[in-house]
């Protein structure tokens, strides 16, 4: 499952992620995935998953080739169609609409339910105060967010 905007989850635990930074007209993309075993919870503050939990792990070079092939595919889709197609495909792989979330913005926490994506890819969060559009923040599934908020 995908957790907005860039985390890949396996059974609710982080398996990997993508970080994209824009420098002028260029994008710098960093990707990471836990292949053999996940980092210890004490190292990252939450439990994580690894592909090794699902069975034999392919060599890292094969994983990298598969990821790059998919990246090329989705870049082609984006160029040939438009961003709405990417958003629709992302939604198919995301947690369901209505999933309780907490948005952490450093020292602030916004609670609500996942309501989908805006046309530009920003997170839609239904809160008690109404619909909010989130451009950035650490997005936690509600049970993770409750743990984080209780520590602050």
- List the uncertain runs: 145-152
CATH topology of the largest domain: BirA Bifunctional Protein, domain 2
Number of strands: 9
Instruction: Give the CATH class of the largest domain.
Output: Alpha Beta
Order of neighbouring strands in the sheet with most strands = 8-7-6-5-9
CATH architecture of the largest domain: 2-Layer Sandwich
How many distinct folded domains?
Answer: 2
Distance between the termini: 28 Å
Average of pLDDT: 86
CATH superfamily of the largest domain: Bira Bifunctional Protein, Domain 2
| SSE-based structural type | alpha+beta
Radius of gyration: 16 Å
Order of helices and strands: EEEEHHHEEEEEH
Percent of residues in β-strands: 25-35%
The number of distinct helices, counting runs of at least 4 residues, comes to 4
Major sheet attributes: 5 strands, antiparallel
Give helix % range: 25-40%
In one word, what is the shape? globular
């Amino acid at each position: 499952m995908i957790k907005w905007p860039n985390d890949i989850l396996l059974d609710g635990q982080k398996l990997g992620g993508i970080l994209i930074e824009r420098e002028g007209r260029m994008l710098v993309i960093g990707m990471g995935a836990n292949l053999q075993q996940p980092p210890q919870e004490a190292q990252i503050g939450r439990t994580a998953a690894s592909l090794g939990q699902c069975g034999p792990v392919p060599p890292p070079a094969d994983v990298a080739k598969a990821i790059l092939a998919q990246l090329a595919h989705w870049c082609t889709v984006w160029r040939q169609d438009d961003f709405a197609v990417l958003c629709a495909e992302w939604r198919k792989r995301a947690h369901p609409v209505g999933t309780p979330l907490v948005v952490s913005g450093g020292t602030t926490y916004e609670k609500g339910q996942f309501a989908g994506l805006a046309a530009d890819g920003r997170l839609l969060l239904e809160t008690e105060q109404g619909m909010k559009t989130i451009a950035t923040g650490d997005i936690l599934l509600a049970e993770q967010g409750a743990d984080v908020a209780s520590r602050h």
